[in-house]
Amino acid sequence: MGLLGFLKRGPNAEESIKNEGFEVSDCSMECLTCTAKFPASLSFKDDDNSALYGNTLPFGLHAIVPTNKCDWEHDATLKLKTIANAVAKWALNSKLEGLGESSDIKVSCSSLSSNDLECKEDYMNETRGDVLLLPFFVWVRNITLDNASGVLTRVVGDLIKFRADGLTEFPSVKYEAFPDVRVEVDRSKSYVFLCSHKTRDKKCGITAPIMKKEFEINLRDEGLYRDASDDREGGVRIAYVNHVGGHKFAANVIIYLRESGKNIWLARCRPNNVQPIIEECILKDGKVWPNYVRRVQKFTPIEW
């Protein structure tokens, strides 16, 4: 869809969102008691003049690659001999069917860690690592540069089938061709990703830590916050990701809800929006505000 098509969709955002199976919140998007703010030096005066809803394309799978970093090279997945690059190449050439609305695969580097470290600026991508596959809420662990494409094709193909079959228990999966690879279910209630890619745009590097802190505070009040060392089921994990497009719409907030299979992509968010986002989007299973939505998607929910 071209730019003209995107702009035409703006006035019909509420109707389109409802047609996607999402409810529109009748609560305020702003928390009046929130005192956190972005620095006054950040200017957003030119950010609110364009249509928001529908200005990012749908995708059928989001592959999250842990890197322990908060910032990345300008093109985060182009660095050769890294797991992120191997996954990005696989995604570009993949021809999988059954992913949902779109067969496109989004790949993101993230501050998530495979070894309980977070946000180490001196961390170097290794030739062996893990990948989180959303909206399946499944980890593929211990893949290598050499087997990433083969492993992900096999695993994602199986996940599509498992979901289509409505499995209520995740089967024990082992692949003789890849004996060191493990496939594990992630029991989190939700994931929330914030763009922190300051190399691409300084706004994201400044706004993301402020948003993350506000999410952590409010999620702790709900007993839902989970850090890297807390593997209790049913929590919410907050992490940074690299450039997701549309930095003029900072802060971008991408949410995955496990039980309903919903994906919510919000933009133009501020710290005083965090509590309403938790209450309406996460706790009330996907209620949204059309003026803040870039895209919503509803995937077939997983049962495992």
From TrEMBL:
Instruction: Name the coiled-coil region(s).
Output: none
Q: Which SUPFAM superfamilies does the protein's record reference?
A: Thioredoxin-like
The record's listing under Pfam families reads: Suc_Fer-like
Q: Which InterPro entries match?
A: Aim32/Apd1-like (IPR009737), Thioredoxin-like_sf (IPR036249)
Q: Which superkingdom?
A: Eukaryota
Which PANTHER family does the record cross-reference, listed alphabetically? ACTIN PATCHES DISTAL PROTEIN 1 (PTHR31902:SF14)
| Identification of the protein by name | Actin patches distal protein 1
Source organism (scientific name) = Australozyma saopauloensis
